[in-house]
Amino acid sequence: TTPPVPSIPMRSITPGATPGLVCTALSLVCTSLWVLCSPAGEGAMAMPAAEPERGELRILWYNVENLYHPDNDTIPGDDDFTPDGVRGWSFSRYGMKITALCKVIIAAGIWEPPELVGLCEVEDARVLDDLVEHPILAPYGYRYVQRDSPDPRGMDVACLYREEMIGLTGFDLHHSDPSGTLGGTRDILHLNCRWGSGEDLDLFLVHLVSKFGGAGATAEPRREQVVHLVHLVDSVYAIRGSSLKVLAGDFNEVLEGYSMEPARTGSVGGKPIAAIPLEGHYGSYKYRGRWSCIDHFMACGDEGYRLRGSILELPRLLSRDETYGGVMPRRTYTGFRYNGGISDHLPACLDISAAPSSDSSEQ
User: Fold this and answer.
1) pLDDT at residue 161 is higher than 70
2) Contacts of 144 (CB under 8 A, 6+ apart)
């Protein structure tokens, strides 16, 4: 049986969850104009890849890079991101980032905002309150799931969901450092929900340890996290074998990397875990002039579904790469210089639809 949903601080617009048609249309039009225009002074740049057909369910994943609330708290990891910190993280800059993120979420849904939005590098519930209550997102009735994790920087994984379309039946958080060698890191967020005509979905959201301490030095701890994740998904399979299971997040590793080997070769219920290719011109992250995909969607129990992944390559999320050429994600800061963007990652989308009976094995 599914455990009851724990009580956590959650606020959203619940009365009159369905937005007025005029308000919704204006929101979509204004957002479309924003995302299709390049920031001033950047000139022409590559247009985004053709938007894939939207699925019956769309999941957006986005590492929003250091989304701190400007108020200082007891965690030293946020000291740089306060009005008095070295980055001068003001309420004005914070408000502009929240607004821009709301616009990206709306734009990611094509004609209908995504039913599920996975986020990482979010400080706490205050940030999520400001996000779901923002005038751009409020009409769509988003709620959220978040818990503070033991990450020393105070960064958490969170999920927004549209209550009108997603029935949240339970969630859990799992420590992603089973050996205790990392000294605290982000938890794995697991949600069980229903969508469409009663389809079951188990969604696992992760933000694995970064390569900040060196790619080689962090490879083994990251691999251990992937092993733990596969075991976790397999344990859920023993309870709900028929549900679609989706793994999403910032794995800080390309699919072919050493740390991802347990996912590439592992199985859930005796069946392999399928990696969903992400369509687009670029990857999700650029490091020293080279694009790669370190944000992934993977799935198992996907028989009977069509799954399609893509990178959201909106011009507003890109800026010129003055060092290596081409374009790069438009970050909030470049070093200590305020850059006015959202993240050093590009968001990724997963579209899920029921497959016709004749090609139920297609992804």
Assistant:
1) yes
2) 10, 12, 125, 128, 131, 132, 158, 159, 160, 161
Ramachandran assignment for 2, one of left (phi > 0), alpha (psi -120 to 50 degrees), beta (any other): beta
Give the pLDDT mean for 351-361.
Answer: 71
Residue pair 348/297 in contact by the 8 Å Cβ criterion = yes
- pLDDT value at position 3? 38
Tokens read off for 203 = 């969604």
Answer for the pair 243, 204: CB distance below 8 angstroms, yes or no.
no
Q: What are phi and psi of 27, to 5 degrees?
A: -60, -45
Query: Measuring CA to CA, how many Å separate 247 from each of 137, 204, 272?
Result: 25, 5, 13
Q: Residue holding tokens 């999520």?
A: 128
**Residue-wise DSSP of 126-168:** HHHHHHHTSTTTGGG-EEEEE-----TT--EEEEEEETTT-EE
- Kindly tell me if the per-residue pLDDT of 256 is higher than 90: yes
- Helix, strand, coil tally for the chain in percent (to 5): 25, 30, 45
Contacts of 220 (CB under 8 A, 6+ apart): 259
All residues at 6 or more sequence positions from 169 whose CB lies less than 8 Å from its CB, including other chains: 2, 5, 192, 193, 194
With left for phi above 0 and alpha for psi between -120 and 50, is residue 22 left, alpha or beta? alpha
pLDDT value at residue 177: 79
Residue 41 host element (H or E): none
User: 230 vs 37, which has greater pLDDT?
Assistant: 230
Torsions phi, psi for 238 (to 5 deg)? -65, -25
pLDDT value of residue 358? 54
